[in-house]
Every structure is written in structure tokens, then in C-alpha cells.
Amino acid sequence: MAIDIAVQNMNVQLTNFFNDVLKVEAIEEAFAPFMVHSKENEQNKLDAYKEELRSLFSNNQGEVQDFHLVQEASLKHFVSLLSGQDNTKHCKVLFSLLEHVASENVISTRSLCEALLSADQLSYKSKEYWLGSFSLVKRMITNVEYKGVREIMKMAIEKSSCLPATLEESEVPQAKALYELVEYIFDRNACLLPGYFVINEILKAYPENRHWPHWMLAPLLSGFVDSFRPTAQMVSLMNRTNLLPVVDQTGPSGQAVSGWKLEPPTLRFSIKGNLPYTNEYLQPQSKLLRYVLEQPYSRDMVCSMLGLQKQHKQRCMVLENELVNLIVDAMERHEERASDSPGYRHPPSHWQHLSAQLIFFVLFQFSSFPHMVLEFINKLSGKKIQKARDHLMWALLQFISGSIQTNPLSDFLPVLKLYDLLYPEREPLPVPDVNDPLSCHQMAPVCIWIHLMKKAQLEGVSVHRPLPIALKTHHEYLQHFVLNNSPPLTVGTDYRVALLCNAFSTNQEYFPRPMGALVDSLHAHQKIQTQMPGTNCVAGGPATPLPMEILDALTVHAKMSLIHSIATHVIKLVQTKSTLALAPALVETYSRLLVYTEIESLGIKGFIAIVYITFNPTIEYSYSLISIVFLLSHKLIIPSFIFGLGSMELQPQGQLSRFLSEPKSIVSSESEELNRALILTLARAVHITGGESVSGPWYKELVMCVQTSTPLTWPSHTLQCFPPGLAEIYNNSPTTLAKDVKQQIKGVGKNWAKSTVNRCIEAVNDLIWKYHIFPIDRFILCLILRNHEEREAQVCFLIIQFLLVRYTDFQTRVTEFVHDNSPEHWKLSNWHEKHLAFHSNYQETFAPEGLLDQNAATLPIYFGNICLRFLPVFDMVIHRYLEIAPMVSVARTLDLLLDSIGSLYKFHDHPVTYLYNTLHYYERRLSERHALKKKLVSVILGSGVHGLSHLSQPMQEYLNFPGDDTSWIPELDYYAKIVHRFVQTLLGKESIFDGDWRFHEFPNASAHALYITCTELMSLPVPAPTVGSNLIDVILRGHSALPRGVLGSWINGVGLILTSLPEPYWQVLFDRILEFLDSPLMTSYNLNVDPFQLFDFSKAHNTLTHVQPAYLLALSHSILHHAVIRQLVGLPQFLKEKVCPLVKTEEQLLWICHLIGPSLRRLHAECTRALMDLTVALYQLLQQVDKCQQVLRFMDTICDLLYPFLFSHLMGGIGGQKNSQPDRFHTSSLMSTNTSSAAVVLDGLRSCLILVRQICTLDWMNSRYHIKYMFTGYMVESHVEQIIRMLRPALQKRLRFITHSNTEELGGTN
């Protein structure tokens, strides 16, 4: 109320004042033509008016709270009075009065400018007011802080839309006045506001340069947009559209997908900031999404890329469309290949994957099933599809059979239109051969029809559509078969039972019969008893599981019903307290069912709970069951599992995240061996995935929990291999436990010392094999995990060598087991027979004789034996051996072990992964031991089912060289072929392995190719830098030999490979960068080509002139994009220590900005500290260039890069944000004009850093910004402030937007 009264009073006073100024005496009016005005009197009169107006705007300043609000309201009132004047002289006087009070800081200059431009009467038809307003704004705008300039600019551009398209001669001055104001705001030398503010507003209001407000401003706006294209280039990832990820969550390639984020509505890259990116950069990335969708086990990555969350039901239309396109493309390829090769069969695994994708994304409502069906109809209309139509119907049947009972019929009715399109035949199709698994696909259309008709019957809906003629015979066959109760249904070699399950799974009248046949084949109601290994152990049921072909032929709904039946049977056994073990057929069948991703979350948890209730947790169920259960659910943590944990499972963003809040759930409270295995796996995972955090080890709480439960110490040679953070934890937490234990057994040791070593080992061997005191796997595990230094460790290896090599008890078992068994157990029907035969020949006793009741039944063993249990122990034996420095006494131990029992690696479930991890983690230990690497690869991979066939031909020949010959030095052609094979696999044009990915150690062909390629490269008998250099030369030297269209894909392939190798391999890139920066081209740039054109990958690739700068940039971007964060955080140190001494020219600085520009966002998201260090390093580079160059041609462009991106990344974005605090640095205080262009490079950098501190006081900070920004901001400020003071005035002028120092001080610094 007080403010309103004050405004009214001031408005009255201003109105009176306004009238006084315009008042003309009668005599003056009468004799106007004859009067001569005194300039002195006029000036005195004007001065009086100025003082009076100044007084009016200052009255009551101390009496009214928020007086500035009164001023602004009254100022608008005065402007409204002024806007009605058309007298030139009066307008001139009034504008001069306003200019005076603003220049005297009585009123806000920004408020005055905004009041003038926002007046309703501001029209080009009011010429005097229009010209006076824009002229005054242009004169006064230098006193407006830059955020106010931005608002004035927006108002001026909006006013241009009021101008007519065709200007009359009398209207040109008005247009010119507006143009001059906008031109002045855009003037880089005037530097009224950061250029990014301008481009941000332009592109926000007029995206894609469309619909400029007026043709007169079009050159200004488009010219300013074009001036930012170099900036957009510097932050754009070169060759972005050709970069593809490897879909893998188990190793180094399984890092976060932040670099692959897409905007769900448009499928464009998620790009920060408004910049004029190239059209290619802004195109929908359908190719990328479709590539990921095609990869098996990719659905989690798809969800991450599109920001989809299972708990939020959100339809994603672009995902829906790409799923349809993916299936339609598969149909067309199948149709084409089937036409060329009549006997062609599309791999069933491909359609299994497509079906699983469709089920998942529709089930979680990311896609709409009815809309997808309608889109199928639209896409397939007009196309002749006959060979692949059944596969589409099979995929649709998977979803329909499982969801039709819980959804309305209307959701599925669009499928009926597909029959008209795909099955137009006027004659019935013949019944397919039911002995062929393809018959289930061929009968899928009639199965869908049966489900739809059953649903219509239940809902009481009449479907006025007859059965398609083409399906008549199929329908009659199924109806006859299901109604004929004799003979009884049995599971044989045909697929009749599967067909009935698929067709009638929603019909409880007919479904129990075929499902009963399946269940009966698994337990036979315990009418059949099967002998199990052990004593008095018998299982109730048959031994032969359901073949994978039968399971593949069942729909998802039928598989879930089978799982439910198995669970029901187990519950029944529990309730009746049956003494019979589960049938081997049932256990193995359930194990096989778990590989189907579409049901992995629907039946596994209940079954595991039942297993825990029914049996002792130490029971060894089925090896495949345990392995798959663990990999899919991570609910069972039994001793052998710890050894099989992958690298990503033990990362904070991986499966371990669930245990970090409660580490006791994964830490053993009593088993030192389990905890040691956990720590060793953790060390390997942190090293390989680059999980060492700059801010401190994230795993410290987990390690301390282990120390509390079982205090551990480690030998020095093991600690040397640990990541620095983990090693530091153990070095700072010593324990005396090991010493205490040694003292306690000292007396026992003296007694043993009286005997010879051979007799001691012989006694141990008898304890293991003759008296069964302890098994060999546990003994060696305990022995190898003890804290023994090098001399003691040598004795341990000697004992192991004698037990495994000299005494043949274990070797005999290994030889027979390897000879008689296959690791591809899912293909076998007689596994139990072989399993039982082995245990009969080599019966295992799990306790010393006499301690067990000879008549008591032992627990059932379904899969395991001493050979399989020893595999993870053997893995650790090799690792411990590699940690010890090469010694003569143990030099041959590992060779002997590998020769004697290395064939056991035929059954390793992750041989390539294990070998990759070993070569990666122990790279420093193995760098000069080429013969040992050769031996490891030959044995571990050579023992597998596929042998060495997945390696390149030259590598196979090298491994087959006799003895320890390691003289092979590959040429560049070898590396080119290696990259070519990997790229072809990545693009889906070939595959190193052609088999069932459900039972493979890798999820898809790309992941397998990456690991096998890296393993091969790490096995080469050449230094790591040589390998890395040759991989880089494949692009930089060998590009001329490549087809022009594939270079981008090769660059992506080399980037993936190098970032998956140890540090010495990819560090060569930094050497190449230094070599390039120090080349004559960059130290004395004298080309007539613009540097930005020279550094542009697309332009250089198209013109083939001076391609090295652009190709090296593109390759660097590929490597940095695929790199883990540990590889990125070294950039600041690299710039400071290596690059800074070399950079003297502006072109060198521009190339460095191109290099690091695309990585800024990721550093901000994952390691802000590194971004701060990078900022300081860039300022130092700028300072150096500023001193060395007299003229800087690209100062504004570099500044345009550094201000928005460093500012936006550190502050969370500036587009549209307003600071409630006025900026005290004005243009008028820095009007020196020498705009040398290099300083602006880091002025933007400075902006982000100094404002880091200011952000703590801003309302828009919210909870998004961690307090660490404040501390790092202060830390960086102290370094940068000194650099800014030594820059040339032109740079300091531009840095005024971000510096914390007074502009007067900076302006006087040379």
C-alpha cells in the first residue's frame, strides 16, 4: 500500500514536471518567428530541469521501502508521457533529461532502456520517439551489466518484427536506428556481453535459422550464428556418427553410457548448449539405436540411452518404431537370402533375440503392442513376404500367449489384419513336418488365432472373421491332435507336444495334457529312480533333461508354466519330506530354462528360496544351474562364485552397488580364503575398469569390513600389483595376525623340519588322496593365499608342483575327465551317465573315514567334481605365480603345471575373459616374459572346444612355433587385418564365433571380438608401445589403403581396442600428439587453409589434403570417447607437463581446444576435479600463446568455446538463467579497443571458475551443485587470477565477465 501511494505521488509530480518542461508562454508563442533564444539561458533552463528531475527521482528514497520499485513504476509513467510527443525539440530535451539522471546513477540504466523499448507506444510510425529511444539506448547500453544487455537485445530483435517487410523511404531511419543498436550489441570489439549469450538467444528464438524476425536483421543474425560454427566444431566429437559402443557389462567396455545418451523424442544426441552444430550432428541416430537393439543382452543399455526406467510406464515412440524397423529389416534380409539359397535358414537365435526384445519393451510399456502391429501392417504393405512371415508371427505369439489373459481383446485385434496381408493364399497350406523345429514357427499363425478365439469366447465377443483359408489344415491338425487322447503324449524327437503347449497354453481344458507330458519326462512321478554319486544317494526321476531344441520351441508362456510346474513339484517334495533327491533331468532342465532372458526375472527368485528351504546351502546342485543363477540374480554367494566375479560386477555402478551400503552381505565372517579372493578380484576389477576414484577409493568401507571380519595381510609382491588406493589402505592398516599364527605353529614346524621335504609332501599327498583329510583344491587354495614373501612363496610353489605333477593322482583324474567329457553340457543328453561314471571310478569322500555313518545318504552331486572345483583354484595359482619376480627355483613350475593339467581349461567357463584379465592386470610383470605369455595363451585357449581358431592365422602360426621361439615381429599389415576383422564383426558383416550366445562367456559377437582381439595383441612378443603405435598407424599411415567409406568405422574400432588395453598401449597416443604439435606444420603455420577447415574431419576426408591433423583428432576423440574415466583424468597433467612447453602458436592452441572440447561434459559429470585442473592448464597455455604471438586472429572464437562450455559445465548451464545480483563490471570501464584475439580463449574458462564461488550465493544453485564446487573454485581462482593479470588488455576486457578482480586493475595491466 505504501508503495502504491508513493508511486501515485511521484507520478503526479512527474506529470507536473513534464507539463512544465513543455509549457510555452503566450508571448513566446505569439512572437516565436521573431525571437532569438539565448544559448546560455537555454542551457541554464535545461540544467534546472535536470536538477529538478534528479530531485524528483530521489525524493522519499529513505522513507519508502523498496524505493527502486517506485522508481521503476514512475519511470515507466514518465516514458509513457514522452512517447506521446512528436515535437522534435521537446523529444530531444526530454531524452537528454533521462540520459542525465541515468548517467548520474539516479535511476538504473537498464531500467531506463527496458522502459523505453517496452513502451506500448514504441512504433516505427512514431518516428521521433522511436529514433530517440534507440539512439539513447545505444548511447547508454555500455553502462548496463551484461545480463541486462541480453534482455535489451531480445527486446530490440522482437521490435524488428513490427517493421513492415517493404520499407518506405520515410521509414528507413527507424530501421537503421534499430539495426545500429543490434549491430553494436553484436560487435565483438564492444564486448557488451558474452557471445554465447547472444547465440543462445538467437538459436532459442529462431532454431535452425528459420523465420528471422525481419530481413533487415537476417545478415546480422545469420552472420553471428556462422561465427559460432568454429566453436561448435571444437566441441563436436569428430566422426561421431560412426562411433559405436560394444554392448558389454563385464569389462572395460562396460562403462557408463553417458556418451551414448539420446533424446527420446528425436533420437538426436543429447547435446548441451545452443550452438550451430552441423546437420549431420543433429540428425536422428536411428543407426546407433538399431545397432544396440540388434545386440543380444542390450536392453539395459537401450533403457539407459533413452532414459527409460522400469518403474515409470512411459511409451517411447522412437523405440517402438525402431523395433518395428529392426524386425522388418530382418524379414527382408531373410526373404532375400532365402530367394538366393532355397535351403537357407535364418539363425533361430536371431529371432529368439528379437522376440525377447519385443516382449521386454512391450511388457514394461515402453512400446505399445497394438501400435506396433499397425506399424508392421504399414511397413509390409505392398511387399511380398512369404519366407519370413512365420518368424514374425512367432515373435508376436511370444507376447500374445503370455499377456492375452491379463489384457483386453481389443489390444490384439489389429493382429487379424496381418492375416489378410501375410496369408492371402486361396488354398490351405500343407501341415509342416513336426520333426523339424521350424514347424513351431510355421504353426505360430494358427496358434495366435486359437488364443484370440479363446479370449473372444471368454469376453463374449463375436469375431466376424473366418479362419484364413491358408491356415485351415493347420487348425484341423491341432484340433484333431489335442482331442485325440490315445496314445498318451510323450516327449520324443518330434515337436507335437511343444505345438500343443504353444496353441493351448491359455486353455485350461487342453493345456494340462501336453504340459503334463513335459513335466512327467522330468520326474516321472518318481516312478523311476536314478543313482547319484555318493553313498546311498538316489534321485527320484530320470536323468535325461529336455533338449534345448524342445525348450526353444516353446513359447515364453509355456516355459513359465513349466517353471511353475517344477517349483510345484519341489514344494511337494518338501511337504512330504521325501528322502529322494531331485531328478537330474529336472535340475538340468531348470538350469537350461534360466538362459532365456525374457523369463529370468519371473521364476528364478522363487525357486532359489525353495532350494534354500529344501537343502543345505552347501549342496552342489547343477554346475550350470549355479553358474547361471549367480550370473542372472546374484542371490547365491557360495565359495566358488567369488572367483568368477567379473570386473564390472565389482564396480560401484555394477552389481556390487547393492552391497556397498551393507558390505557385510558379501563379506564372509569366518572364511579368510573367500575374503582374500574377494579383495584380489576387487583389485583386478579396479585396475582393468579404471575404477580408482580421484576423490578416494569408493571401496574403502568394503575393505575395512573385510579387515574387521578376517584381518588380512599381503606379501609385498602382491601389494605391488594392487591399485594405488587399495595398496595404501593395506599399508596403513598393518596387522600382527600373521606373525601370531607363525609363532603358534613354530613348534610344529620344527618337527616337520626334521623330515625331508619330499617325505613331507608325500605325507600331504596321502592325507589328500588316501585318508581324505582335506581335498586338494582347498589345501592348495589355502596354501596359495597365505601371506608368504618370496622365499616362502617358492616353497609353496615347490609343494604345489610335487602334488600336481610328481604324484599322478590328480593328473589321472584330469586326463580321464577331459577325455570323456565335453564342456558343452547343454548339448548332451547323457551328461549324467558320464558324470556318474567318473564318480564311480574316482569316488569322492568329503570327510575322513570313520567320521561318517557308512549307511547315511550323502548329498547329491549333479555336476561338479574335483577337476571342475580345482579350476578357480588353478586360476589363482597362476596369478600368484605371476606376482613373484622370475626366479630360477620356480621358473619351470608354471610350465610344468600347464603341461600336466592345463587341459582342464577346456572346461573353463570364461577362458578368454580370464586370459584378458590376467594379461591386463599383470602387464608390467609379463612385459618381458614373452615365452610365458605364449604358453598361457596356447594352453588356456588351445584347450578349449574351438582351440586357437578364434585367433588370427599369423597368431596361430606363432603359437605353434616350437619351444620358446618368440622372434616374430608383426608388420603393419598384421595390425590392419586385426582391426579389419574386429570392425567387420562390429558392423555385423562377419563373426569370429557363430554359435549360441546364451551359453557363451560373452553376450554378443562384438564383445567377444573385442576381448579376443585385445588378448591376442597383449600376447604379441613385442613391447606394448610398439603395438599401440602400430594400431595408430593403421589409421594415420594406412588410411590410403582403406575404402573411403569405412575409415570412420576403422577409427571407431581402433579407439575401442586401444582403450581396452593396458596403459602402456594407449599412452602412445600422447606421444603422437606431442610429435604432431612440434611438427613444422604447427610450429610455423603458413598454409592458406583456415585451421578450422584443416582440423575438420569431414572436410579433410573429402578433400584428401593435409589429412593428418584431422585424422589424428578423430582418432584421439574416438579413444577419449571410449576411455574409462581413469584414462581421461590424466589430460590436465599431460597438458601441463608435456604440451605446455611446446605450445607457442595460436594454431597449436586451437588444435588442443579441438582435442579436449568434446571431453568437457564427461569430465564435469564424472570428475570435476580433473576439469578444474584442466582449466588451469588451459589458462597457462593461453598465457604462453599470448606472450609469443603479437596478433591473435581467433581470440573471439576461442573465447566463444571456453566461456559457454567451461561455464555451463561447471555451473550447470546458463541458458535462460538470471542472476539476482547485478554485475558490477561495466563496459564503460574497459573501453580500450585493441582486441588481440588469444586471450578470450580462456576468458570463458575463467568465467566458469570465478563464478563457481558466486554460485554458492545464487538462488538457482539448488541441491544440484555439490559443495566441492565452492572449494575447487577457490583453489583454481588463486592460480588463474595471477595469469589474467599478465594477459594483454584485450583479453582482460573479455575476461571481465568472469574475473573476480576490479576491472580498473585489470585494464591497467599489460
TrEMBL record:
The question of whether Oxidoreductase is a record keyword is answered with no
GO biological process per UniProt: positive regulation of gene expression; regulation of transcription by RNA polymerase II
Which keywords does the record carry? Nucleus, Transcription, Transcription regulation
Give the record's GO CC terms: mediator complex; transcription regulator complex
The answer to whether UniProt assigns keyword Transcription regulation to this entry is yes
Task: Spell out the Pfam families in the cross-references.
Answer: Med23
Q: Could you tell me the superkingdom of the organism this chain comes from?
A: Eukaryota
Where is this chain's protein located in or outside the cell? Answer: Nucleus
**Family named by the database record:** Belongs to the Mediator complex subunit 23 family.
Q: What is this protein called?
A: Mediator of RNA polymerase II transcription subunit 23
